[in-house]
Amino acid sequence: MARVSMREEIVEAALEQFHTRGYNAAGVKDITVAAGVPKGSFYNHFDSKESLAVVALERYGANVRLGDLADRSVAPLPRLRAHFELLRDETVRRGYTRGCMFGNFGAEVADHSGPVRGAVHDAFARWSAAIAATLAEARQAGALPSGLDPEQVAAFLLSAWEGTLLRARADRSSEAFDTFFTVAFGTLLA
Amino acid sequence: MARVSMREEIVEAALEQFHTRGYNAAGVKDITVAAGVPKGSFYNHFDSKESLAVVALERYGANVRLGDLADRSVAPLPRLRAHFELLRDETVRRGYTRGCMFGNFGAEVADHSGPVRGAVHDAFARWSAAIAATLAEARQAGALPSGLDPEQVAAFLLSAWEGTLLRARADRSSEAFDTFFTVAFGTLLA
Q1: Is residue A1 part of a domain?
Q2: pLDDT tens-digit readout, A137-171
Q3: Number of domains chain B contains
Q4: Rg of chain A over CA atoms, in angstroms?
């Protein structure tokens, strides 16, 4: 079997190391060891840990599965709910650890790195827009309570989701997830 | 003027260093330099950076001003709104940096330290309970939309607030704050 490129191995290892340990706790050495590549090879592919972090954040975007939000074979609100349920299930499976890498890097790195802040900003903007498009579909289908603005509600729900992940991790319990689904889908969008 | 105790100077410096740099980026040396105390004196007062982090998180609690939420001279919902507005103003004044230390340590440290996770858990639980008590007052005064459970809505609002801070930092803009106030107070609680 052909070996995937060294760059690709570094990116995959970085994604895992950054997500489990955080940005500052994951050193270049940890990443190259996890990737099984010589430490010296790192700088053939990346200028700095910071540039690798931006690539890893972009790669992490696939985990959020924004494509599922565009699947018109499911009604918009159940589709949005399933989107968050799938992300919840992943966190529960990991014993309430890791959280969302966008939120983690937003908390730990955004103040200190323009490129990382930019990548987190873009990721949130894309995610929020995908949620807003789903809510706009719901509105068109008459399934959104009147007076709700899809873009504002999308941004609010995404913030609530990010905070819910922080709380679920601190509690190591699904209570915060239950609250999110009850209030978001049982009250705000009901 | 009497010099405050060395322990106190270390705690104050740690609070500032942890909040601005994060847990892993703020070393014991950074903290003792900022406190103006010899590095060796650190371990006379604390077992580890981790134990200091727990003390710093408890100290940070004062910044959240939960006492204001119990001030019955203001009607409950305007009081709750003013609580978040004051925290927003602080973040705006700091150029959208720092965020909430509970959320930051929840994102960066909770997975890796039981004591820090416990301190973040307790802090969120206390804050959520104070918001719930304010919402329960609103309900008693007939100012809460029917069907809203104060405890659940409090936990949801706190999550939304924590996520809003992450978003505002990533955007360096007050848009996420505007969204929070519009949806929380203009829709959910209206």
Answers
A1: no
A2: 999 999 999 899 999 999 999 999 999 999 999 99
A3: 2
A4: 18
CB neighbours (10 Å) of residue B165?
26
Give SS3 for B16.
Answer: helix
B87, B10: one domain:
no
* A37/A76 same-domain check: no
Read off the pLDDT of residues A33-78 as tens digits, 9 standing for 90 and up: 999 999 999 999 999 999 999 999 999 999 999 999 999 999 999 9
Cβ of B159 within 8 Å of Cβ of A167? The answer is yes
Q: Which of B24, B97, B103 sits opposite A111 (nearest CB)?
A: B97
Do A24 and B24 count as a contact with CB atoms less than 8 A apart? yes
Residue B4: both structure tokens together: 């405050």
Nearest residue to A109 (alpha-carbon basis) of B49, B59, B107, B29 = B107
Distance of CA B130 to the CA centre of its chain: 13
> Contact A104/B107, CB-based, under 8 Å?
yes
B22: domain CATH number is 1.10.10.60
Whether residue B154 is found in the same domain as residue B184 = yes
Residue B55 belongs to some domain of the structure: no
Task: Indicate whether A32 pLDDT > 60.
Answer: yes
Residues from chain B that touch A186, judged by Cβ atoms under 8 A, are: none
CA–CA min distance B37, chain A (Å): 25
Domain that holds residue A169: 65-188
Would you tell me which residues 99-128 of chain A have a C-beta closer than 8 angstroms to some C-beta of chain B? Answer: 99, 102-104, 106-108, 110-112, 117, 120-121, 124
User: CA A91 to CA A80: how far, in whole Å?
Assistant: 17
Cβ–Cβ contacts within 10 Å for residue B187, how many? 18
- How far A30 CA sits from the closest chain B CA (Å)? 15
| Cβ B100 vs Cβ B120: under 8 Å | no
Torsions phi, psi for B72 (to 5 deg): -75, 0
